[in-house]
Specification:
Elements lengths: L3 H26 L3 H23 L2 H32 L5 H6 L7 E8 L5 E7 L2 E7 L2 H18 L5 E6 L11 H6 L7 H12 L4 H4 L23
Parallel strand pairs: 3-4
Antiparallel strand pairs: 1-2, 2-3
Protein name: DUF4191 domain-containing protein
Pfam families: DUF4191 (PF13829)
Keywords: Membrane, Transmembrane, Transmembrane helix
C-alpha cells in the first residue's frame, strides 16, 4: 500500500496540470468558458439547495447539489473543450489523422497512405465496417487520390467493403467534428478474425508513413512532398 500512495500522489498533480492546460487552450477559442462553467455550477447547486429547503433537508440536498454541480460542470467543460479543439484543428493538414488516432478500440488506422505535392492526403482505417478511406484537402484533387487508393484496396481485398469519406464543410463532405460519429455508424459486416486478416494483407503493402518520417496529428503547413507525387507509386 505504501508504494501505491506516492504513485497516486504523483499522478494527481499531473491530472490537475492537464486540466489547467486544457482550460487555457479552450479559453483561447471560447472566451466565455469561465462564465459558462460558473453559471452551470451555481444554477445546479442553487436548484438542489432550494429543493432541500422546501422539503426540509437543506444539508443533504446541499451536499448532493455540490456533487451534481461538479458533474454538470465537468460535462459542459468537456464538450466545450472538444468543440474548441475541433475548431482549432479545422482546416489544418493532418487534422483527420488526429481524429482517427483517437477513434477507439476495434479500429486500426494508418495515416497518410496516399498524398500529393499539394498536401492532399488519404488516411486508412480498418474495422468491422470494412476499410474506410478518409481524405482531406481540395475536394477536386482528393477524388483522384481516393479513386486510386480505392482501386488498390479492391484489388488486394476484393471481398471487403471500402468506404470513402472527404473531410470538409461542403456538400457531400463530413465535418471534422462528425468524422468519428459517422464512422462508428457504418454497418458492421466483418468479424474480428476477418478484420485481422484484412489488416495482415494490407500491412504487406506498406504505407507512406514507413517511407517518410511524418509527425502524428496536424502536419506543419510549410511541409512539402518531394517531386514525383506519392513515393509509394513506383
Amino acid at each position: 500500500m505504501a508504494r501505491k500512495e506516492p504513485a497516486a500522489d504523483a499522478a494527481n498533480p499531473g491530472r490537475l496540470k492537464q486540466i489547467a492546460l486544457t482550460y487555457k487552450m479552450t479559453r483561447k477559442a471560447d472566451k466565455k468558458i469561465g462564465l459558462v462553467l460558473a453559471g452551470v455550477g451555481i444554477v445546479v447547486f442553487g436548484v438542489l439547495l432550494g429543493i432541500g429547503f422546501l422539503i426540509g433537508h437543506p444539508i443533504y440536498l446541499g451536499i448532493l447539489g455540490v456533487l451534481l454541480a461538479f458533474l454538470a460542470t465537468a460535462i459542459v467543460f468537456g464538450r466545450r473543450a472538444e468543440r474548441a479543439a475541433f475548431g482549432q484543428m479545422e482546416g489544418q493538414p493532418g487534422a483527420a489523422a488526429a481524429v482517427l488516432d483517437n477513434i477507439g478500440r476495434g479500429w486500426t488506422t494508418t495515416p497518410a497512405v496516399a498524398m500529393n505535392r499539394n498536401q492532399d492526403v488519404v488516411h486508412r482505417a480498418v474495422g468491422k465496417a470494412g476499410i474506410v478511406l478518409v481524405a482531406e484537402g481540395n475536394p477536386n484533387r482528393v477524388k483522384s487520390l481516393l479513386a486510386a487508393e480505392k482501386k488498390k484496396m479492391n484489388r488486394i481485398v476484393a471481398d471487403v467493403p471500402v468506404h470513402d469519406l472527404i473531410v470538409g464543410t461542403g456538400e457531400g463532405q463530413v465535418e471534422l467534428k462528425k468524422l468519428r460519429t459517422t464512422m462508428l455508424k457504418l454497418p458492421r459486416v466483418l468479424s474480428g478474425p476477418q478484420v485481422t486478416v484484412t489488416n495482415d494483407r494490407l500491412r504487406a503493402l506498406g504505407d507512406l508513413m514507413s517511407n517518410m518520417p511524418l509527425p502524428k496529428g496536424p502536419m506543419p503547413k510549410g511541409m512539402r512532398m518531394p517531386r514525383g507525387g506519392n513515393p509509394r507509386q513506383r
